[in-house]
Design goal:
Shape: globular
Order of helices and strands: EEEEHEEHHHHHHHHHHHHEEEEE
Strand content: 5-15%
Helix content: 25-40%
Distance between the termini: 44 Å
Number of strands: 11
Number of helices: 13
Largest sheet: 5 strands, antiparallel
Length: 401
């Protein structure tokens, strides 16, 4: 199989003498003097010379918005890791609140769009991915601005909308994983749209098999596996479907040991997008509530992913995914040693065992508390004891986001 080509980084620092026409400059990183500068495309040689004459030594460019000829790297789990640090804003408390509201609005709009997509497919219509790409751009903006705000939403689900929400969550988690791996914005966008489309073929699987509470028989499993084939048929009829989108849909059930389906690919036959997709797809399925089972806690799902390393999953990527999600993932409920229950709002990269949480409930008094947000890294009197299932206490976490 021909490997995908992916751009390894979104932002890149470059000396002024090395600027090419068509590059999109977002900031000056080194200069002599102090000049006022607005971001934009370097459209002529005179523009470059003008910047240089004003004392600009180095700039940061955005590859995803540049139109010059870009160098790409062959896709494998190592070569796509960027050396430059991704640029991310430092938000104030008010901005974080606003970004959470914006993320909720986007997620609700994406659910509506995903429902329309599935309805259109059921009616035999061709997939129009233009609206999906527009939504993907907005979701990626939100993820880069405040990844915790968007990722939180994968925990808020309804049991009767699994297929739609699973695809949406896989796309969103893939995008956040791509951000963590420092892939290009375009690659992240294609991963997101690929996730939205990856399970569309399941609408062709009979409901009695798709929602069967018990173990599938061999014949039923054979029918279930055909959903990948159906998904690819839908995508083949649609315009604008990229190689990465196809790979996410085609390979999310493949395994490193070759025991996956539909083609039994293994080892180096599985590119980075394939390996990422298998991890994210299984993680979301394990943590989802279904009509016939409760979803498990993220920490339990992490253990299953780790147990499958080397056979089903790429070990290095699983460990990176866990780091990306956080030891105590955003949206999870934790019990503090003081007996309080708290909702994980934000991860602390430098102190992963001490996230920012929202205290909401007392297990000793068995009553809700006045909501209080604390940073455990700055609150030595509070420490996490364990993760807990909100359903054990009848808590609807969506009311506290």
């Amino acid at each position: 199989m021909t490997p995908i080509q992916l751009i390894a980084e979104n932002y890149q620092k470059i000396a002024i003498k090395d600027i090419k026409l068509g590059m999109f400059v977002v900031a000056i990183t080194k200069q002599k003097g102090d000049i006022d500068f607005k971001s934009g495309v370097v459209s002529s040689e005179s523009t470059r010379r003008s910047l240089q004459s004003m004392g600009v030594l180095e700039v940061r460019i955005d590859l995803s918005r540049s139109k010059h000829q870009q160098e790409v790297l062959i896709d494998n789990p190592e070569s796509n890791l960027a050396s430059e640090e991704q640029v991310q804003e430092v938000l104030t408390s008010t901005e974080k609140t606003e970004s959470r509201k914006r993320a909720q609005k986007l997620y609700a709009e994406a659910k509506i769009l995903q429902t329309k997509l599935l309805d259109a497919l059921k009616n035999g219509e061709v997939v129009d991915i233009a609206p999906l790409e527009e939504m993907a751009d907005e979701m990626i903006d939100s993820i880069f601005k405040n990844p915790d705000a968007m990722v939180f939403l994968y925990r808020i689900r309804e049991k009767d909308t699994y297929l739609m929400e699973h695809s949406l969550n896989v796309g969103m988690l893939l995008a956040n994983f791509g951000r963590f791996l420092k892939l290009s914005r375009q690659t992240i966008k294609e991963l997101l749209v690929g996730g939205l489309l990856h399970d569309t073929g399941k609408i062709m699987v009979p409901d009695e098999i798709l929602h069967k509470p018990g173990r599938l028989t061999a014949d039923e499993f054979s029918i279930m596996k055909r959903h990948v084939e159906y998904s690819m048929q839908f995508l083949d009829k649609s315009e604008g479907i990229s190689k990465i989108m196809r790979i996410v849909a085609a390979n999310h059930h493949e395994r490193l040991d070759g025991l996956g389906y539909p083609r039994g690919l293994k080892g180096l036959e599985l590119c980075l997008a394939s390996r990422m997709s298998t991890i994210v797809d299984v993680f979301d399925a394990l943590t989802a509530d279904r009509c016939y089972k409760k979803g498990m806690q993220a920490t339990q799902a992490f253990r299953i992913l780790l147990q499958g390393c080397g056979t089903q999953f790429d070990e290095k990527l699983v460990k990176k995914f866990i780091k990306c999600m956080g030891i105590y993932p955003v949206g999870g409920l934790v019990k503090l040693k003081t007996g309080k229950l708290a909702l994980v709002l934000e991860s602390n990269e430098n102190t992963p065992l001490q996230p920012i949480v929202k205290i909401i409930y007392s297990t000793t008094g068995k009553h809700y508390l006045d909501v209080k947000v604390i940073d455990l890294a700055k609150t030595p009197t509070e420490e996490i004891e364990s993760t807990v299932d909100p359903k054990e206490y009848g808590i609807d976490i969506s009311k506290f986001y």
